Amino acid sequence: MLPHELCSRLSNASLARHRYVPLLPTSQHLSILTVLLSQGFITSLSYGSTQSTSSTPPSVSSWYTSPTPQKRLWAELKYRNERPVLGRMSLVSSPSRKVFMTKGEVERFVLGNRVKFVKGLDLGEVAVVKTAHGWMDAREAVKKGLGGEVVARVG
């Protein structure tokens, strides 16, 4: 599953006020969701199967008993005052147009300036960057002096 499907699933689930979102358990999804978890956009991540629903918590024991096609990674969306914390998640890099930024460009992007036809980050927004040292938030990449592919933005 590509990151654009992850973005649309999380955005749509947030708009529909679902509590849990099932996703395919790929390393890419786990990395992006870990960044969202560390930034406070989701409450928790857990393993489960397709036997759970979007309103009931997934059972970790079902992960071990289910065949591989039914295994899922479940993200619990975070809500504050009955409003979703994850309002919108959109793709910056697409499969046909990858957006790579140097460390200086990432810094300008984080400060809110337009870089490579990409609007800068607004207040409360987070960008997910794939660097040579793994997946991280754009602000963390700036602190470490890294550039990379800007995959998605979350607000």
Give the termini distance in whole angstroms: 22 Å
Total E-strand runs: 10
Radius of gyration (Å): 16 Å
The helix content is 25-40%
Shape estimate? globular
Mean pLDDT: 90
Assign the structural class, choosing from mainly alpha, mainly beta, alpha/beta, alpha+beta, or little secondary structure.
alpha+beta
Described by its quaternary structure, the protein is single chain
Q: What proportion strand? A: 25-35%
The SSE string, one letter per element, is HEHEHEEEEEHEEHE
The main β sheet shows up as: 5 strands, antiparallel
Total helical elements? 5
Residue runs with pLDDT of under 50 for 5 or more positions: none
Describe the structure.
The structure is a single chain. By secondary structure, this protein is α+β, with helices and mostly antiparallel strands. The protein contains 5 helices and 10 strands; from the N terminus they run αβαβαβββββαββαβ. The protein has helices spanning 3-15, 27-38, 60-65, 103-110, 138-144; strands spanning 20-23, 42-49, 71-77, 79-80, 83-84, 89-91, 100-101, 126-131, 134-137, 148-154. The strands form 3 sheets. Strands 6, 7, 8, 9 and 10 form a 5-stranded antiparallel β-sheet that branches. Strands 1-3-2 form a 3-stranded antiparallel β-sheet. A two-stranded antiparallel sheet has the order 4-5. A hairpin with a 2-residue loop joins strand 4 and strand 5. Helix 4 packs across helix 5. The radius of gyration is 16 Å and the shape is globular. 32% of the residues are buried. The model has no long low-confidence stretch (mean pLDDT 90).
